[in-house]
Amino acid sequence: MRATLDTPFADARADALSFALGLPRLEALAVLPLERAGLTVELRLLGASHQVIAGPLSETVACLPGDAEPLPGRATTSVPGWTYDFAATTATHSDGTAFARAVEAVCARLADRGDALTGDFPGSRHAVTALALETPAPDDIGLGWRTWHAYPQTREIVMTRSRLVKPS
Q1: pLDDT value at position 57?
Q2: What number of CA atoms fall less than 13 Å from residue 149's CA on the CB side?
Q3: How far is residue 150 CA from its own chain's centroid?
Q4: Which of 31, 77, 84, 168 is 20 to 30 Å apart from 59, CA to CA?
Q5: Mean pLDDT across 110-120
Q6: pTM given for the model
């Protein structure tokens, strides 16, 4: 699902992003509800990036006020009945053309997927936040999702990958 958003994005660069688990649902600009791995999942676009609610887990990557944790490169924890894994990387592109191509490639890859949500923020056609569930393997006992946060001002794309896995 592609959403054209009326609200300017609140975070303007990768280093403004914070990471939080367990927050309540924040006000969302667009929500895509799904079912996967026996869980109700919500992919949520915020004015300040994203939130995913997946069963017992709430993951928020956004420009959060107060004493929020900075975005980690990696995090692992347990939530009731699941193990959670998170990873984040930032790609900085050398010029506007390379950045635009990278953003357009993500948008094209997600365009026809019913399990993806892409939000276009006003001001630049490359100001995009996108979320997508990962396609599970046939024997997969978990749930995964990826996100992309594109910042035209700095030509950065923050990419995250998250997994919930049932312990064996």
Answers
A1: 95
A2: 30
A3: 11
A4: 168
A5: 92
A6: 0.91
